[in-house]
Amino acid sequence: MPATRITPRRSIAAAAVLPLLALALTACGYGSEAEKGDNVAPAAKGEKIDGLDTVKVGYFPNLTHATALVGHQEGIIQKELGGTKLSAATFNAGPSEIEALNAGSIDIGFIGPSPAINGYAKSKGQSLRIISGSASGGVKLVVNPAKIKTLDDLKGKKIATPQLGNTQDVAFLNWISEKGWKVDAESGKGDVSVVRTENKVAPDAYKSGSIDGAWVPEPTASKLVSEGAKVLLDESTLWPEKKFVITNIIVSQKFLTEHPDVVEAVLRGSVKTNAWINANPDKAKASANAKLKELTGKALPPEVIDPAWPSIQFTDDPLATTLQAQADHAVKAGLLDKPDLAGIYDLKPLNKVLKAQGKPEVADASLGVK
Q1: Most exposed among 116, 178, 192, 208, judged by the fewest C-beta atoms under 10 Å?
Q2: Would the pTM of this model clear 0.90, i.e. be above it?
Q3: Residue pLDDT, tens place only, 233-279
Q4: CA 278, 282, 286 angle in degrees (round to 5)?
Q5: Which parts of 44-166 fold into alpha helices (H)?
Q6: How confident is the model over 74-88, as pLDDT tens digits?
């Protein structure tokens, strides 16, 4: 997806169209060409929740959305929904999923932090709530070892990020700033050349020598490693307890109000799915890859999925403080006026589910509904 040119420090309404807040999560996977479609899934059985025939759930065919991939593939979420059918739609980019949520084409979505911020800010706090976490981590700086041996060697080199202003782009710009180096956020020119490159293109760009490395999510990082790159930095090492949000679960406020029991059922399914993933990592990896093959026609090869999988943590905690930090990094980079995120979270349904399952409750960093 071509990057949209922006003017720094726009209003919140204008900032809603920034690529930062329009995270193209296609970049996280390969062969992710499906826009949407009902996928084969276990049949709905039993009583319908709230009398609802179908709940429409959106996600991406990417490893960082493995809670959705595995929960759908294994029928864990459908089991919690009983006779209410889980109808899945897959998306290539955050903006299209937010549009679908706003239009009522989906009710619940798995999505990255930037488009969640975008959707909330654009609607002035009226469109969505974040109701759970899903995944943390899975982002690495990988480089050509013949050209770059230490972090200081990045100066003067060409490093790719997926898109102007997307989550990884902002993280890299923030890292550059903390090194004391200067880069114009919009053009990418400066002490380091930040080259905005779609993740599916990055391997060819690396092989051709047009980039010297990339700050990218999995499985793109491991794909580059399979082409000879080396991991120089795992972004998780920059965060407290090595955790930062990469995927959340969102819901339209209208659907949450009208069908709270369905939302709770989906959350039970996501919590049970994450527990199963963490207890059965090899089976879960195979399950996620099977779903990817079904959705995209192409499974990830072992040399890509095997190193990529362990770098992603599957968690119910939305890691709310890191969402705020990512927004702050965008403001610091001059890509965004500070958004008001108060009320973006409603974790009451999740905490009810966690308590019932004997798990600790999670916090909203004072950004929850009152």
Answers
A1: 208
A2: no
A3: 999 999 999 999 999 999 999 999 999 999 999 999 999 999 999 99
A4: 115
A5: 66-73, 76-81, 94-103, 113-122
A6: 999 999 999 999 999
Based on the number of CB atoms within 10 Å of its own CB, is 337 exposed (0-12), middle (13-18) or buried (19 or more)? middle
Query: Are 114 and 166 in contact, with CB atoms under 8 Å apart?
Result: yes
Q: How far apart are CA 134 and CA 249, in angstroms?
A: 7
> Contact, 13 vs 65, CB < 8 A?
no
Mean pLDDT of the chain: 88
Radius of gyration of the chain (CA): 19
- What is the Cα–Cα distance from 61 to 72, expressed in whole angstroms? 12
- Under DSSP, the state recorded for 368 is B
67, 248 contact by CB (below 8 A): no
* Beta pairing, strands 108-111 & 54-59: parallel
H helices present in the chain, as ranges:
12-15, 66-73, 76-81, 94-103, 113-122, 167-178, 202-208, 220-226, 253-258, 260-279, 281-296, 302-308, 320-332, 348-356
- Rounded-to-integer distance, Cα 221 and Cα 33, Å: 19
| Amino acid residing at 270 | S
What letters, b where the CB count within 10 A reaches 16 and e where it falls short, cover 301-313? eeebbebbbebbb
Q: Of how many residues is the chain composed?
A: 370
